[in-house]
Amino acid sequence: MLIVLLKINPRPGKRQDTLDILRSLQLPLQVRQDCLACEVYETREGKGEILYLEQWRNKEALSRHIQSTLYLRILTAMELAAEAPEICFHEVADSRGMDLIEEIRECEGS
After folding, report:
1. Domain ranges of the chain
2. What is the mean pLDDT of residues 59-80?
């Protein structure tokens, strides 16, 4: 699985445009079989940054997405940033859930 995190601090007057562009990706990506998530978050404090998250089943699916015309919307949103946006691609080798919490808390109690 791959997780893409994009942090944008929009230029003054471009916040809503940036949000609209990123939100316009949600529905088209949600119907793609290999896209596991597409979310847009707004920070309430500080610079008023926007956090955009995508989750992909595999590297091939992410590569197809980056090469698609739909990805041009993300590049357009990035151009509305007041400073260079931060983008990170995380390749996840393993995921755990509640079992990890239980395992760690059981070890603490010993």
Report:
1. 2-109
2. 97
CA of 85: how far to CAs of 78, 79, 106, in Å?
6, 9, 41
Give the tens place of pLDDT for each residue, 25-46.
999 999 999 999 999 999 876 6
Phi and psi of 36, rounded to 5°?
-90, -25
CATH number of 2-109, picked from 2.40.50.140, 3.40.50.720, 3.30.70.100, 3.40.309.10: 3.30.70.100
Name residue, tokens 């603490």.
Answer: 108
Q: What backbone torsions phi and psi does residue 104 show, to the nearest 5 degrees?
A: -70, -40
* pLDDT at position 108: 66
Look at residue 46 in the predicted model and tell me its pLDDT: 61
Report d(CA 92, CA 82) in Å as an integer. 30
Closest CA to 5 of 41, 71, 48, 53: 53
* DSSP 8-state secondary structure symbol assigned to residue 22: H
Residue 102: phi, psi to the nearest 5? Answer: -60, -45
